[in-house]
Amino acid sequence: MRIAFNGFFLDKPNTGSGQYVRSLLAHLAQIGAGLDCWVYRPPVVGPGDAFGPFAIRHLSGPSGRNVGKIWFEQASLPRAAARVAVDLIHYPYFAAPLLSSSKVVVTVHDLITLLFPEYQTSRAARLYNRLIARAVRRATLVIADSESTRRDIVRRLGLPDERIRVIYLAVEGLYRPCEDASLLAGIREKYGLWQEYVLYIGGLNAHKNLGKLLEAFALVLQALGRRFTLAIAGVAHSHNPQVFPDWQLLAHQLGLGDSVKFLGFVPEGDKPLLYSAASLFVYPSLYEGFGLAPLEAMACGASVICSQAASLPEVVGEGGILVDVREVRELASAMAAVLADQNKRAELRYRGTKQAQRFSWSRTANQTLEVYREASRSRAGKAG
After folding, report:
1. Is 147 helix (H, G, I), strand (E, B) or coil?
2. For residues 213 and 200, is the Cβ–Cβ distance under 8 A?
3. How are beta strands 197-201 and 164-166 bridged, if at all?
4. Any bridge partners for residue 233, and if so which?
5. pLDDT of 65 strictly over 80
6. CB-count exposure of residue 285 (10 Å: 0-12, 13-18, 19+)
C-alpha cells in the first residue's frame, strides 16, 4: 500500500501536531508491514529528517505563512500524490483538500478554532475555517483523538459516525519517573523553583483557563501557610490578548509575586524532570481534543489534578483527580488536600503511572495502519 503523508508540521516539533507527526511516522516505520509511505513537506534548510524506509519529498510553493500553507494543502500535495499513484493521502491535522483524485484520511485533534470565538475574529480566519470544515467533510475516513472529539465532529461538522475512527495518542519513552535526587535538584535549580512546587505545562491560550489556576493557587497559599512555587511553562504564539491573555499581569494583580515562575519555553528533555520533581501537576483546561500534558505527567509519576472537561476524563481516568475547574474554590480545595498529604500524593503517583501504561504509540500506529487499509478498500468517493 502506497500513501502520501502530509509532513507540513515536521519542522514544528514543539506543537501538538508536530509531536503527533513525528511519533506516528517513527512508529509506522518500525511496523513496516509493506507500507510505502511518501512524506511530503515544504523545503527545509539542513539535512531534514529520516523515518526509516519512508521517502521524504520537498514541495515548493508560494511564500508567506498562510498562503504557503493553503497552497501546500490544497494544490502541491494533492498533485504530487496523484503523480505517484498513491492509495490515499493522510492529513495528520485539521486540514484536507477540497479536490483530490486520491482518497483522504484526516486526523482531527480538536475543533478549537471552530468552537472558541477568539479564533474567528478575522475574516481570513473565518474563511479558512469554513474551507477546511468543508474539505474535511469530504474525507474518506476521519481519525479522532478521543470520543469527545468524535462527538464534536459529528455535532459540529455533521459527519456520519460511521466515517470516524477513535485512536488515542500516547507519549514517548522519555516520559518516565526519575528518582535521581541530583537530577531533580538540578532541574529545580535551573528554573529557580522551591523544593515543593505546583506545575503547569502547556499552552498559554485563553481556553487553558490559567486565570482560575492562579486564583486557586492564591487560596492554597493562604490555606496552607507554606511556601510553594507555581511553575507555568509555555509560550504565547501571538500578541492577540483574546487568544493569549496576559497571565503575568494577573499574577501580579493577585499579589503572587515570586511565588509564580513563568518558565517560557521548556526543552523536551527537561519536561520529564520537571514532572518528576513536581509536588503536583494541575491542568485546568476548558477544552482538549486529547490532553497530552496530563498523560506525560502521569507517565512521569506526578500527582495530577485535572479538568473534567471534554476529553480529559478519557485520558486521566482513575489516574488523577478530576474537578470542575470553573469553580476556583473546588480547584483550590483539591490542590490543598493533595499538597498537605504525602500519602495522597503517593496514591496518585501510583494510579497515574498505571493509567499512563494504557496508552502506547505502537498501538496508535497499528490502529492508524488499519485505518489506512480500511480507507484504501473503501468504495467511498475521493475528495471532490
Report:
1. helix
2. yes
3. unpaired
4. 201, 264
5. no
6. buried
Neighbours of 252 (CB within 10 A): 12
- Count of domains for the chain: 2
User: Are 367 and 331 within one domain?
Assistant: no
Residue with cell 500500500: 1
Residue 13 lies in domain: 2-170+361-377
Q: Are 278 and 200 in contact (CB under 8 A)?
A: no
pLDDT tens per residue across span 180-190: 999 999 999 99
Query: How many other C-beta atoms are found inside a 10 Å radius of the C-beta of residue 215?
Result: 18
Rounded Cα distance, 351 and 319, in Å: 5
Reading the block at residue 285, the C-alpha cell is 483546561
Q: Does the model's pTM come out above 0.90? A: yes
Residue reference for cell 472558541:
116
Please check whether residue 384 lies inside any domain of the structure: no
Using CB atoms within 10 Å of the CB of residue 53, give its burial: 0 to 12 exposed, 13 to 18 middle, 19+ buried: exposed
Average pLDDT, stretch 225-245?
Answer: 92
| C-alpha to C-alpha distance for 322 and 334, rounded to whole angstroms | 9
pLDDT digits (tens, 9 = 90+) for 15-42: 889 999 999 999 999 997 789 999 999 8
- Taking 70 as the threshold, does the pLDDT of residue 113 lie above it? yes
pLDDT tens figures, 119-171: 888 888 889 889 899 999 999 999 999 999 999 999 999 999 999 999 999 99
Residues 6+ apart with CB under 8 A from 342: none
Q: What is the Cα–Cα distance from 119 to 203, expressed in whole angstroms?
A: 15
Q: Cell 504525602, residue?
A: 342
Is 175 within a domain? no
Q: Which of 112, 146, 114, 133 is nearest to 287 (CA)?
A: 112
